[in-house]
Amino acid sequence: MSSATDKNPAPAVQHTDAEWREKLTPEEFAVLREAGTERPFVGEYTDTKTDGVYECRACGAELFRSTEKFESHCGWPSFFDPADSDAVILNEDTSLGMRRVEVICKNCHSHLGHVFEGEGYPTPTDQRYCINSISLVLKPAE
Questions:
Q1: What keywords sit in the KW lines (predicted)?
Q2: Cα separations (Å) of 133 from 41, 118, 137?
Q3: In a domain? residue 77
Q4: Is residue 80 part of a domain?
């Protein structure tokens, strides 16, 4: 995966590509392990308002909570902060001729999406964690 660099600690959950391919669907593998992006406005959680916790689809680590999710109308689920500031790793991403900040799961180094700042959303952090639905599993609150 493009984001596993020397500056990041080794992930707690590690599998070979073959093992990841057994665990994930081809679409999940393309996003989570190959840093792909799902099409906008098609993801399962884009407009979800269910209370709960969003976990990494690859390893089950808690990443985001519904209390930090907001409507950004960008086509992907958006959060203004991770559930735990140590839950994700932020890496510079210069692919596609742009400078962005990639968001990966700290636990397994799977690609989740990107984070953007200074877009003027009325959130406490002025950040938009733009996350692929396919990277997440929502565990509804009981």
A1: Oxidoreductase
A2: 10, 23, 8
A3: yes
A4: yes
Tell me the residue range of the domain where 75 lies: 17-140
Q: Find the helix or strand (DSSP H, E) in which 28 lies.
A: helix 26-32
Q: Which of 56, 59, 105, 130 is catalytic?
A: 130
First vs last Cα of the chain: how many Å apart?
35
Taking residues 19-29, report their average pLDDT.
96
Mean pLDDT, residues 43-64 taken together: 96
**Which distant-in-sequence residues (6+ apart) come within 8 Å of 60 by Cβ?**
137
What is the total count of domains within the chain?
Answer: 1
Quick one: tokens of 46?
Answer: 């884009």
How confident is the model at residue 64, as a pLDDT? 96
Strands 69-70 and 78-79: antiparallel
Can you give the pLDDT at residue 7?
A: 66
Residue 34 lies in a domain: yes
State pTM to two decimals.
Answer: 0.89
Rg (CA), the chain: 14
Tens of pLDDT, residues 84-135? 778 999 998 888 788 889 999 999 999 999 999 989 888 899 899 999 999 9
CATH of the domain at 48: 2.170.150.20
| Encoded tokens for 92 | 């510079």
CA–CA gap between residue 128 and residue 81 (Å, rounded):
8
